[in-house]
Each structure stands twice: as structure tokens, then as C-alpha cells.
From TrEMBL:
InterPro entries: SAM-dependent_MTases_sf (IPR029063), TrmK (IPR006901)
Taxonomic classification: Bacteria, Bacillati, Bacillota, Bacilli, Bacillales
Keyword Ribonucleoprotein applies: no
Gene3D superfamilies: 1.10.287.1890, Vaccinia Virus protein VP39
UniProt entry tagged with the keyword ATP-binding: no
Pfam families: TrmK (PF04816)
GO biological process, one term: methylation
Full protein name: tRNA (Adenine22-N1)-methyltransferase
GO MF, any single term: tRNA (adenine(22)-N1)-methyltransferase activity
Keyword list, A-Z: Methyltransferase, Transferase
PANTHER family xref list: TRNA (ADENINE(22)-N(1))-METHYLTRANSFERASE
Length: 248
């Protein structure tokens, strides 16, 4: 049985697809996806020896060597252009996910769906999708074992640019005179802010707490640069607090 996080990712694959799971580690997702019929073929990509061995073991034990190809390599280097129609990258920081996507952009030819689960830096992933012709079709946030995860699904679309402009269009924060700016939506999620759940509130309460701690420590400094930083963080924290108060 998959974790709720991996199950959500599997559920978002196009039915019967060929996909690559980059940074697959134990290859749980590819094995599950081919066995459930969600995918007909999967590549499990790994750059590190330990996880690569774990993936090979898992695939061999499941008897899925024909449908799951375990390959060693950096990011999207493990696939050929046109080989898969979906890519999943889960359990890494947003900056690493973005660097993998950028470095392998020619390998995304023919890929119609991305399912990405950054552990941190979700806004970096949204920014990359926005700038590279991918429309963010779904955002999921869930809590599992005390951790909060966001799963971002994107589709390639010729009208991605118009669709994204609409998605990130400035809109009122209900009950406030202020608006959700594009920047705020990139941070808090253009879709998640429309239907915030408990996990989303928990995430932003914790982000505010972290910010307020930084503000407190910066406030002790007499340096000009620290003062400026304090003001930026203070404004951001206040923006988050207002959004939470209005959406609650
Ligand atoms: N995707 C699995 C999941 O979500 O449960 C495993 C996540 S694990 C925390 C991250 C994995 O990504 C590690 O096994 C690591 O070796 C792999 N990794 C990190 N950078 C990578 C890269 N550039 N290319 C391929 N794999 C990478």
C-alpha cells in the first residue's frame, strides 16, 4: 500500500500512461502505477547508488522488470525525447526540481503532464511552470505523519500563457480591501487559496511562526540592511496573517 502522498501522485497520472519517476528511490510509485494499470510503462530514474539499488531490488521482487526500467542518471538524462508522456518528481526541494526540469527541457518534448511534489520552495516550481508554458491544473495539499505536502499537477497547453494569466490574475481577498497579487498567489497557491483546507492553514500558520521568529532575531540588529530585511519580512508576515484571518 502506498503512502497517501504517493497515492495522490499516482492518481494524477494520465490513465495508461508511460511515465518517468525521477529520483525514484525505492521505485514504489512506478511499481504501483504499472500494477494498478495507471501506467503501462515506467522509468525509475536515480542518480545515487544506494537508492538505485533499492529501486532495482523492489522492481525485481515485484517481478516488474519488463514494465519498469530502472536507470541510473542525473534528472531527465535517463529518458529519450518522446519516450514518456508524463513525469513525476517527488520528495525534493523546489529548487532541485526546477533545476532538473530546466536542465532536461529538451526531454520534455512529448510530455503532456508533470506531477511535482516539492518538499519546500513550492513557489519556485509554480514560477517555473508559469514561465515555461505549463498550466497548473491542480494543487493538492495534505498532511501525513505530521508533515505537509503539496502536489502540483501541470499540463502542457498551447494556451498555457492565457490560462496562467487568468489563474494568477490579481483578485480580491474575500473580506479584505487588499488583493491576492500574483506574487502572493505564487507563494500561497492560486488554487489552494480558493479552497483552503486544514493542511493549508496549518502550513501557513507554521510559515508565519517561522517568519516571526526571523523578524524577532533580525529586529535585535542595528544594521541598516537588517532593518530593511525586517521591514520586508514584517510586511510579508502581515500579508499572510490577513489572508488567513479572511479565509478562516
Ligand atoms: N521520489 C521518492 C518519493 O517521493 O518518495 C523518493 C524521494 S527521495 C527523498 C529523493 C531522491 O531523489 C533520492 O533518492 C535522491 O537520490 C534522488 N535524486 C536527487 N537528485 C537527483 C537527480 N538530480 N536526479 C535523479 N535523482 C535524484
Amino acid at each position: 500500500k502506498l503512502s497517501a502522498r504517493l497515492q495522490h501522485i499516482a492518481d494524477r497520472l494520465p490513465s495508461g500512461c508511460r511515465f518517468a519517476d525521477i529520483g525514484s528511490d525505492h521505485a514504489l510509485l512506478p511499481v504501483y502505477a504499472v500494477q494498478s494499470g495507471q501506467a503501462c510503462f515506467a522509468v525509475a530514474g536515480e542518480v545515487n547508488e544506494g537508492p538505485l539499488e533499492a529501486a532495482k531490488r523492489q522492481v525485481a521482487e515485484a517481478g516488474e522488470g519488463k514494465r519498469v526500467s530502472v536507470r541510473k542518471g542525473n534528472g531527465l538524462a535517463v529518458i529519450a525525447p518522446g519516450e514518456v508522456d508524463a513525469v513525476t518528481i517527488a520528495g525534493m526541494g523546489g529548487a532541485l526540481i526546477v533545476s532538473i526540469l530546466s536542465a532536461g527541457i529538451d526531454k520534455l518534448e512529448g510530455v503532456t503532464r508533470l506531477v511535482l511534489q516539492p518538499n519546500v520552495g513550492e513557489d519556485l516550481v509554480r514560477r517555473w511552470l508559469f514561465s515555461n508554458g505549463w498550466y497548473l491544473t491542480e494543487e493538492v495539499i495534505l498532511e501525513e505523519d505530521g508533515k505537509i505536502y503539496e502536489i502540483l499537477t501541470a499540463e502542457r497547453s498551447p494556451s498555457a500563457s492565457d490560462l496562467n494569466d487568468k489563474l494568477y490574475e490579481e483578485r480580491p481577498i474575500p473580506g479584505s480591501t487588499n488583493s491576492f497579487t500574483k506574487e502572493l498567489l505564487l507563494l500561497m497557491g492560486p488554487r489552494l487559496t480558493q479552497q483552503p483546507n486544514e493542511a493549508w492553514f496549518a502550513k501557513w500558520e507554521s510559515e508565519i511562526e517561522k517568519l516571526d521568529k526571523i523578524i524577532f532575531s533580525v529586529a535585535a540588529s542595528k544594521q541598516e540592511a537588517a532593518r530593511e530585511k525586517e521591514e520586508v519580512l514584517f510586511n510579508l508576515s502581515n500579508q499572510y496573517k490577513e489572508v488567513l484571518a479572511c479565509l478562516q
